[in-house]
Every structure is written in C-alpha cells, then in structure tokens.
Design goal:
With 314 residues, the chain is mainly alpha-helical. It has two domains: 47 residues; 217 residues, MetI-like (MetI-like fold, Orthogonal Bundle). Helix content is 76%, strand content 1%. It contains 13 helices and two strands. β1 and β2 form a beta hairpin.
Length: 314
Amino acid sequence: MIRPFYRFIRAREKLMKVLFLLSSVFAVLALLVIFLFLMMRGIPSIANIGFFRFVFGTRWSVSDPNNQSFGILPMIVGSIYVTALATLIGVTIGLFTAVFLYKFCPKKIAKGVRQLINLLAGIPSVVYGLFGVMVIVPFLRNNVSSNGMGHGVLAASIILAIMILPTIVSITLDALHAAPEHYYEGALALGASKERAVFGVMLPSAKSGVFAAVVLAVGRAIGETMAVIMVIGGSPEMPNGSLFQSIRTLTANIALGAMEATGSILDAMIATGVILFVFTLFINVGFNLIKNKKKKPNKKKKPDKEEEATDEVG
C-alpha cells in the first residue's frame, strides 16, 4: 500500500515539474516571437525612414499620401510626460493608503477596503476611459482648466493613477507585512511615535517591495492604451507643458491607426512598437540598476600599513 502511494506522489511531482517547465518555456517563446516580429517588421521601416528622422522628428502626418512624415518625438515626450505625472500621483496616494491600511486602520475595515481596492484591477480599461470622458473631463473643463479644455495630460494622468493604485497598494502592503514586526516594536520601545516607527523604520525596511510596486506601476502606465485614447485628445503635437493640451502617446499612436493602416503607414506603426519595446526595456533595466546599486554595501577602505604605523607612533 505504501509503495504505490509514494509512486503516485513522485509521478505527480514529475508531472508538475514538466508543467512548470513548459509554462516557463512558453513565456520565453512568446517574448521571443514578439521580439522577432517587431524587429523583422520594424527595423527595415526605421531604416527606410531614417533613425534620427523617425525618433527625433517632430511632425507626424499620414493623411496626405504625397506629404507623409513619420516623426514620433512628440509621442515619446508625451508618453514620458503622462507616465511621470500618473506615477507621481498614483505612488503618492497608493503609498499613504498602504501605510494607513497597515497600522492606522482597524483590521476589520482594512480587509474590506483592501478588497475594494483590488477590485479596481479587474475593471476593464474601456470603463476607466468612459468614466474619464463622462466625469473627469467635464469636471476639469468646468472647474480647473484655464483654456476651456478637459481632455489632455491631466485627465489621462488621473485615469492612469487610479488604474495603478491596486498594484501599488497591494505590493506595498505585502512588503510592509513581510517586514519583521520586532522592528516596529523596538522603535516604539525606544520612544518613537507610531507614525515615526512606521515611516522611519518599517517603510525603509520594505523599500524593495515599494520599489517593485513603482516599477510595475510605471510599466502599467506606459503600456495603457484604451483609457488614455479616450481622455487625452490624440493630437500628434509636441507637449508644451500645459496640463490641458491634447497630445498623443506611443501606445495611442499605434492603436489609432494600426487597424486601418496599410503599407508604409503600417510599417511605421510597427516601428513605433519597436521604439516602445526598447523604451520599456530601458526603463526596467534602469530601475534594476538603481535597485542593485542601492543593495551594494559601502566598503570601507582599509588603512595602509604606513598609516597604521603612523597612528601607533602618534
């Protein structure tokens, strides 16, 4: 009876190992296929247009076949502009929300609030866009905007900030709960207030989780399309610093014309996807380099023998 049972356990473990391996291989293959598709279709298009003319060009015009121009610099700057503002708003609100749920909110209420925040992650992006069009844009146009426009950078940033809230709150809260509780108790025992113990001790000890939340939030914000298209306006103009200017992001530029475009226009859309892919890759690599740099301990320089001897004589 025992041997067949152990054989069944071992067979099940081998099956699960094979399933895990296949899942990993599938994920890598999917990324590889997407990468090859973008490179095979996008690189020739960038070469035909000209790299500097494509990446640093400030004019995007595809309506006139005789006077087409494929410059995506306004979309690159617009993507950075909207993502940075959305991350600033979302991370600030999400961080304070996570801290409130961690130590300043009753546990019974905190569980319900966390579940409600997690529900935000399941709402389709088109619903966020509809909410932005029907609520946020009219509010900004009637109460905040100085030029009578509600569409633009601020509306898109607010929508994206709401969309990244579940990621920031959930990961930050998990990181805070994973931090050793005796850090908090020790800080209180040394005379620190509750607020100082949380912000001065617990939050720094959970900084790796907070950093991961920011990275995921940036990835979500820069890759969002539908909700952004509905509230940002969509004009391929260079951002001038106004929060109520109609601009276009890289993802919006692809989505607005990819379904109907053909020929050189479609190739330019795919080339835009290549730039977005590389752009996202650089952001992730940059965050990882910053994270690894923070982890490296500062090595103290050992004193030379002559300096030691001098100190002893002195």
